[in-house]
Design brief:
single chain; about 425 residues; alpha/beta; Ribosomal Protein S5, domain 2; Four Helix Bundle (Hemerythrin (Met), subunit A); six-stranded mixed sheet; Hsp90_fam; ATP-binding; Ribosomal_Su5_D2-typ_SF
Length: about 425
């Protein structure tokens, strides 16, 4: 097969490009895209790269081997070299030729060669620039074809390749709470819609868009008119945690407790609630715990679930949900860690840390819990445990929901008995 990477791109037609790709990639289809370039500085380089139309890792075929071979003056130095591109670019197929590499260089020396290290950075930057150009000039192809197939590798690069983390972050796309289902936006598009006073980028990890839209963690952001990025997998969550910032804005999980959304503080609201209750002006449909009641209930909740709860406080960030846990480990990350741990045979090696609970002082369940905790302590304890487990479910932290079944049956029995008493 002719070394077409060393030829002038003007002298090669699509048919010859396609034939060479099928030869080196052992493929039967045409590539999604290609990059053929020549450079004289800082190194003499002739390179031809292909992006396949699909990759096999997602089909459970195992981790792919590197796909780029290294040459010097058309002499093969190393086939499928692991040193010429970072591991996250292992899906790239092609050939690289550099006359700056001595023909006598061995594969072992190539691994430690300063020239190879410099070549690696130049080639990585060139590929990222090519993808950036595709995203800008042909967004449909980038998002609909490339990103759909290779987003995982870009996120892997963000987590591994800190030299190019900023450039790679601009190539990431997400759904948000204000986009349509399937509509992907970049960080730049998200930031452009932010209110001037918003200094953070918010994200929420959930198994699906529907669950994200119905998450109790989203309630406060909708109330404040803040847009939230939706991510759906453990690698997404890990990527956000690794990025930490984008263009000077902190990237913050919606599950954190110390988020300032401009909603009235809890202390002020509690005092107002006390004043209204003292003067009898609180409407029935706006009932809420007084400051004293909230403090008593939080103390009781913490004491009752001492082995599971690190703290319990009142919050105004909730509307339709009775409680949430915050500042917890990510549910997606926990599932990934548990999967790895299970493969290693350690099923019980990941105990759940004590959680920080925030309760909604206006919710009927919380109001009811306050009213029965002294009159019916056994039932109140069962309800508190269920409220807590519901919080874990919402956060994706409950490893096995079957543990709740006996308690749920007890609660249903109480409901049925109560209904029968009302009929009599």
């Amino acid at each position: 097969m002719e070394a077409i990477w060393s030829m002038d791109p003007k002298d090669i037609d699509d048919e010859k490009y396609s034939a060479f790709y099928k030869y080196i990639a052992h493929a039967y289809d045409d590539p999604l895209d290609r990059l053929h370039f020549r450079a004289d500085a800082p190194l003499e380089i002739k390179a031809l790269f292909y992006i396949p139309s699909f990759h096999m890792e997602k089909h459970g075929m195992g981790r792919m081997d590197p796909g780029v071979s290294l040459y010097s003056r058309k002499v093969l130095i190393e086939a499928k070299s692991p040193d010429i591109l970072p591991e996250w670019l292992r899906f790239i197929k092609g050939a690289v030729d550099s006359e700056d590499l001595p023909l006598s260089i061995s594969r072992e020396k190539a691994q430690d060669s300063m020239i190879v290290s410099k070549l690696r950075k130049v080639l990585t930057r060139k590929i990222i620039n090519h993808l950036t150009k595709m995203a800008r000039k042909d967004p449909d192809k980038y998002k609909g074809e490339f990103y759909k197939e290779y987003a995982f590798f870009l996120k892997e690069g963000v987590c591994q390749d800190f030299d190019f983390q900023d450039q790679l972050s601009k190539l990431l796309y997400f759904e948000t709470s204000k986009t349509m289902n399937g509509e992907l936006n970049s960080f730049d598009e998200y930031v452009a819609r932010c209110k001037p006073e918003q200094k953070e980028i918010y994200y929420l990890c959930a198994p699906s868009r529907d669950l994200a839209l119905n998450s109790p963690y989203l309630e406060a952001f909708e109330k404040a008119g803040r847009e939230v990025i939706f991510v759906y997998t453990a690698i997404d969550d890990f990527t956000m945690a690794n990025l930490e910032k984008y263009e000077g804005r902190s990237i913050v999980s919606a599950e954190k407790s110390n988020i300032d959304l401009g909603i009235d503080g809890d202390e002020k609201s509690d005092k107002e609630g006390d004043e209204k209750n003292e003067h009898g002006k609180e409407a029935d449909d706006q009932k809420k715990l007084t400051g004293v009641e909230a403090e008593e209930l939080c103390s009781w909740f913490h004491k009752t679930l001492d082995q599971k709860v690190a703290s319990c406080k009142v919050t105004n960030r909730l509307d339709s949900s009775p409680a949430i846990v915050t500042d917890n480990e990510s549910g997606a990350m926990r599932r990934m860690m548990r999967m790895v741990d299970t493969q290693e045979g350690g099923l019980d090696a990941l105990p759940l840390a004590k959680q920080h609970v925030l309760i909604n002082p206006k919710h009927p369940i919380i109001l009811g819990l306050q009213s029965i905790r002294e009159k019916e302590p056994t039932l109140a304890k069962v309800c508190a445990e269920q409220v807590f487990d519901n919080c874990l479910v919402a956060a994706g932290l409950l490893d096995d929901g079957r543990t709740m079944l006996p308690r749920l049956n007890d609660i249903l029995l109480c409901v049925v008995k109560g209904a029968n008493k009302d009929e009599k």
